[in-house]
Design brief:
Blueprint (H helix, E strand, L loop, with lengths): L6 H4 L10 H19 L2 E2 L6 E2 L1 H5 L5 H20 L3 H18 L4 H9 L1 H25 L5 H25 L3
Antiparallel strand pairs: 1-2
Helix pairs in contact: 2-4, 2-7, 4-5, 4-7, 5-6, 5-7
Length: about 180
């Protein structure tokens, strides 16, 4: 896929507990295809400039941008279903609203719409969030477990050091 999604990135998700790894992966792949279709499916010939259906629809003043807004809200709806944190949903909503407001400006807004790519930004935010969760889970799983024997040994050694310190103070401290 375009953004390098793999099952490994989706494996340790803690969002919606009812989703299996395979369901999460399928959802993310579907959302990634959707973002690519809306924001960068087509290429301007002889350039590296990419645009999607959102940019084409956005050429229709106001109505086109509003339709693009509705299309972009689909990703946000899916983020709600995935159970991502509110802070992430707010970032995604901010991207969608900024894209919509920029698009309302004639001509310049159409150019900004091609450049900003709110849906691609939002799918990247989702993938980064899942990757961060995976890293957190991996770190938690890799932490060495401290056994009760280790704790007991530590407590015994600490007590022994305190007793030895007190004895040394009493022996060498002039009374």
């Amino acid at each position: 896929t375009t953004l390098g999604l793999s099952l490994e990135k989706a494996r340790y998700h803690t969002m919606n507990k009812n989703l299996s790894d395979e369901e999460l992966l399928a959802t993310l792949k579907r959302l990634e295809r959707y973002a690519e279709f809306t924001d960068s499916r087509f290429r301007l010939p002889f350039t590296n400039i990419r645009f999607g259906i959102d940019s084409i629809i956005g050429l229709i003043p106001i109505i086109g941008e509003t339709i693009g807004l509705i299309l972009s809200l689909y990703l946000l709806r899916e983020a709600f279903k995935l159970g991502v944190p509110h802070s992430l949903k707010l970032k995604m909503l901010g991207n969608v609203l900024l894209d919509w407001m920029m698009g309302l400006v004639p001509i310049a807004g159409d150019i900004a719409d091609v450049a900003f790519k709110a849906n691609i930004r939002n799918i990247k935010l989702l993938l980064e969030h899942i990757d961060q969760e995976r890293q957190s889970q991996k770190i938690a799983l890799e932490r060495p477990k401290v056994s009760t024997n280790s704790r007991s040994t530590f407590m015994l050694l600490t007590t022994l050091l305190i007793v030895v310190s007190i004895c040394l103070i009493l022996v060498y401290l002039p009374l």
